[in-house]
# Entry
Amino acid sequence: MTVGSGLEVRGLRVLTRAGVPVVDGVDLSVPGGTVLGLVGESGSGKTTVGTALLGGTRRGLEIDSGSVVLEGTDLTQLSESELREWRGSRVTYVPQDPTTALNPAMRVGGQIREVLDCHDYGDGPQQRADRVSEAFAEVGLPADGAFAQRYPHQLSGGQQQRVCIAMAFSTWPALVVLDEPTTGLDVTTQALVLDTVRQLTQAHGCAALYISHDLAVVSTISDTVAVLYAGSVVEQGPTGELVNAPRHPYTARLVAAVPDLTGRRELKGIPGGAPSPSMRPHGCRFAPRCALVIDECTVELPELRPVRDNHLARCIRADEVHPAEVRDRASYTEVSREPLLRVEGLTARYGKVPVLHGLSLDVPEGSCVALLGESGSGKTTLARTLAGLHTDAEGSLRFAGMSLPFGSHERDRATRAAVAYVFQNPYSSLNPRRTVGDSVGRPLRVLRGVKGADLDRRVTEMLERVYLSPRLAQRYPDQLSGGERQRVAVARALISDPTLLICDEITSALDVSVQANLVGLIEQFRRDLGLTLLFVTHDIALVRNVAQRVAVLQQGVIVEDATTEELFEHPRHAYTKELLETTPSLAS
Amino acid sequence: MSDVQPSVGAGPSADPGGAEQAPGLLRRSWANGRTKTGLGITLLVVAMALIGPFVAPGGETAIVGPPNATEVPGLLFGTDTTGRDVWSRFLFGGVSVLWLSALCTIVGVGAGLLIALLAGYSRTWVDEVLMRTTDVFLAFPAIVLALLFLAIFQPSPWTVILTVALGHAPRVARVMRAAVLDVAGRDYVRSAESMGLRRWAIRLGDLLPNVTGPLMVECGLRLTYSIGLVAGLGFLGLSGLEADQADWGLMINEGRIAFTVQPWPVLLPVIAIGLLTIGTNLVADGIARAAAGTDREVAG
# Structure
């Protein structure tokens, strides 16, 4: 297969209508047959870069200057109708969510055929039909006609995403842009999809841009990585070198914030958050959060300059940046304690569909137990049942030696205050019409009858304890970032002085740097207040960094229950082993 | 993880300018040109109807000239079928339409909202019973229901309000129940449930404040329909007003016989009612667009 000439992006600059740059100073070079990983936190402009490579922008934005050169043509100079020719044939896109990208009313084979017809692929109907089955085969889907006749809802999430990838590669494109294509997938499926993308890129000799917030995922698929911060590329280099010897302080902190599967490196967040486009500081944009900052940093935006072969960094102190320290974590010795929560023979169902099958679990007092499982394993149902939010269940729950009824209305006030719950999505768990202070104080008002100045004081104290400014009490949730919202949710859960805190995937909607901060905060509360934690997650690498015990949940049954050390050193169940093998980890 | 702690501090939360207050629904609606136009038209007609009685050149019922005359010196639009001043009657006749439609809207939307809050957040047979009952009412056109009730009960302003409101309530209930159902599935409602709050406390504290968007749209839409219905009932002589009292709907009915010789008693109220419905409709549409985010620019 011929190798394409690849992609060259120079000085890309995208502005809002008001003239505020969302992305500027983006230079990327992706040779044919290679994958460039574009990493950035939310708000860094990575999706804006991705759409700009397709010659477009979201509503309200426009490409101001710069060039996107593919096969000798500058896409930014093309007219709308010329761009339509390019899109879907020479430049293709794989979206984050395949369920909304595929037309639910069309058979999947027909959808790929539509793309080929639309771009006059090949020499006739027979060749196009052949290409459709070939495209399915390339992504490891059945090439027979029966599969092509299926509708998207008849496929699993992983299969749907592979259909999207097959579609993107069907026209032998020169560039494929993949925008977080594995975010909604389980780790095992993710590994398969990543493998497919990598193979296809090499086989087709095309350039691929893989956009993600997850450095671990990016490092397993990319040849080179570009790190985007506040709208500009701060570092670009070969994957292994960039991850192991980062030369920009932001990259170094980002590496430290990725949960480490070996548990050798401590999880460390980055203070603060990325500035919004209109609030970007003068000079180096990372300066306010940087430990190496000196006066010179704030004078002007540093140039992206070479620090080694093919390795560029936008930092004037690049030589002084050190990779994250590796050290042994303090190993945990289990103190045998009475379980604070004991679940026995719990069966939960939705109508007639059972989700949990006679499950038993002990949560020892003062420890953090991780409940690990992928989507559909029943972990959220378990968490909600324990919180009194799901009552279609039978079995026995014992909390602090007492029987715990299923519905929250049947529990007494003291119990409702003692069992607190933090929801997965901070964007939907806070009432948008209540101020932060109102939301945080509500459990205290409802469960403990605290009022007036006393309530205000407790709210202020609580906000300070989750490292939020008490001034935020007057704000509304939509004025906060995702990380701040989740800290507000944690404050709301902790204000009634609970003994058991159930955290349901509380970091899955957050950036890694914010995740590390939140996990640190939760751990601090566990140590200082003797809080018992049930930490529900799908991320096995995160488990290693937060939990003392792990219960692995698969299809409503706990398949393995051990201390964290034991589980990682000697996994017994096949499913646990598979998780450990397929979870992406930073190359080291 | 001993040194995680310092890294948690000093977030952007310390930065007072970090986030601007997102503009509320009304302000976002106002940014839309159609809302401004609509509100302008509505206010013009409302002002005319409210101030009209005080600035009218003549009396509401005084006979000042020959019937159906168009060229009467001193009278702007001539006289009607019984020789009363058309302009004065027009200026007097708007108030009844306005307050009747406003009350119809308030009662109708209020009742519909109540049903929606009850049904949308009960998850029991109450939902079924309420919604199937509203379905029965939905099967009849609003005007047929109104005529039926006004045939049974003595027409009076209050029966008009109740019958028109009765036509609105099931339609409002259907739309608002969908909005309530959506909000009832959010996690902050779960969170309130886990605190053991009573259902009505959740309805008023969590659900109602989060359905104000569709509620505003419904208010605007139902006001438009109310104006049409109230004027229509007035035209049929069913608004329960005194026989010679000025009322836009009544004026159209009285004037239509002599429309070819004296069009003004019909044209003036028709134009006013038309403008008012267009105005309120534009406002409702503007609010609906803002609520749906149709005109929203991408945040920077």
Remarks:
- The CA atoms of residues 66 and 293 of chain A lie 30 Å apart.
